[in-house]
Amino acid sequence: MFAVSKQIAGGIGPLMWSVLLLLGARTEGATANPLPSVHALVEAAERGAVIELPAGTFELDRPLVIDKPLSLAGRGKDRTVLRSTAGQTGAMLIVRNVSGVHLARFTLDGAGNAHVSQGIVLSNGSGHRLEELCIRDIPGSGDFGPHGIYASANVTDSVFARLEIRNIGCDSEWGAGIRIGKGGRGNTIEDNDLSGFGRGGILTTHGSTDTRILRNSVREFGFAGPGLGIEVWGSGRRVVIEDNSVDHWISVDGQEDVAIRRNAITGAADPARIGSYVLELVNSQRVVMTDNVASGGNQIGISVSNRARKDLAYWARNRMAGCQTWGAQIQGEEGGAHRMYFYRNVFEQTRKSERSLYPGAAGHGFRFNGNAFEMVLHANRMVGNRGAGIQLGGPNLDRLTFIENVVQDNDGPAVAGAFRGDHLLWRADDVSGNQGGDNALTSKGFDERSLPDLAIRISADPKTGKPVTFQLEGFDPARFSEVLWDLDHGIPRTGRTVEHTYDCPGRHRIAAIAWTTDGQATLAEATLTLTD
């Protein structure tokens, strides 16, 4: 029925057992042979075994449990299918209390079975690789989930790559593609195609740290829950989210040291479905969000909100177009929003209609809604919006800086609302063509002397794989209180001098924002060219 061979990989290291299953699958036009089952193969396999499944359909009448290091691989996700026939509630596949499991090239088919509570559940393990799998058609049971993949606790240094996950819990407020839970660390989620979820696509929670979320496509979600394309939530640190394409909502909540770069937020294919946000920052510190593009289908472009302190953020070259309510809203609430630098962003064609979240107050390009301090808007464009270019709303706005912005061709005034704080700088802003009036603000309170020029010095002969040093020249510690760096790779950094190692050659745009003790800021930029 099956053959077992013993190999030594590369002539060194531990013995590896190769188990090649020849029969036992239900193939087209053939009668299924019930033995050996996948359960029996996994239970009988030695540590380090390689189990290769042929093309065909295998029935899983109960969870398949893997608690030893092994590889389970099929002949391709379109050819090898593990289908649920379970009559009791449970996950389809469980990996627990083990490290070094490899799953590849097969489909887990929930087949619409309401007894399936999750696709794959992992816990207490490290160094797993899940790749080229399809996980599909799990309506869900129980109160939490279902998820295509749920790393429920203490899963570290694992890779989830080139997966297809679809139709998971579409009627459940918690239905999602991939969730990394408590104790997650050092995991990579990359090059996956996710679609069809009640809640969202990729979620990390409860202190999951050092996560990389790269080049994923997340479509058609939020049918029963809030509709989060990618969410990192709950006391996490050191997260990089780059080059993804999602319908709606990349959310950073309760995090430190996060980079969000070059993502496309497209809106749903169905124009009747409007998402809540494009980029959301909640209760987080030391965040950079650069070169992200939104092209409609969402209520609010950039959203900063919630009760805890939100501090040190750099927003650069983002384009928020066609939002239904506001291009941006900064709502500091009790903890306030502090020390945020907006540079060369575009807020355009914000709409105002019955589909807006607040139809009577919609249409503004950039909106303050109270408790915002030490904000800098530098060289942004607020153009062609149905309301004002800039709205000053809510209490406690102070230490605001507007320099070299373009506020043009808005249906409302250039600036709506009155500034009641003590410190404001308005300089070299281009205001014209606004139907509600080309009004400008008047500077007051700040020392308007030019901030000192700062320059970035880069260590000589930078190469990939070796540390590169960046130093901010002209930095006066008596004048400046903090520096935030965007190195165009990895997480944000702080300090006058920082060091970083790059893994690929190429050009990188480097930025350092230095904040003064009185709430102003200055930006220094440089270009890094790396060679091998």
From TrEMBL:
<feature type="domain" description="Right handed beta helix">
    <location>
        <begin position="229"/>
        <end position="394"/>
    </location>
</feature>
<dbReference type="InterPro" id="IPR000601">
    <property type="entry name" value="PKD_dom"/>
</dbReference>
<dbReference type="InterPro" id="IPR006626">
    <property type="entry name" value="PbH1"/>
</dbReference>
<feature type="domain" description="PKD">
    <location>
        <begin position="458"/>
        <end position="523"/>
    </location>
</feature>
<dbReference type="InterPro" id="IPR035986">
    <property type="entry name" value="PKD_dom_sf"/>
</dbReference>
<protein>
    <submittedName>
        <fullName>Right-handed parallel beta-helix repeat-containing protein</fullName>
    </submittedName>
</protein>
<dbReference type="InterPro" id="IPR012334">
    <property type="entry name" value="Pectin_lyas_fold"/>
</dbReference>
<dbReference type="Pfam" id="PF13229">
    <property type="entry name" value="Beta_helix"/>
</dbReference>
<dbReference type="InterPro" id="IPR011050">
    <property type="entry name" value="Pectin_lyase_fold/virulence"/>
</dbReference>
<dbReference type="Pfam" id="PF00801">
    <property type="entry name" value="PKD"/>
</dbReference>
<dbReference type="InterPro" id="IPR039448">
    <property type="entry name" value="Beta_helix"/>
</dbReference>
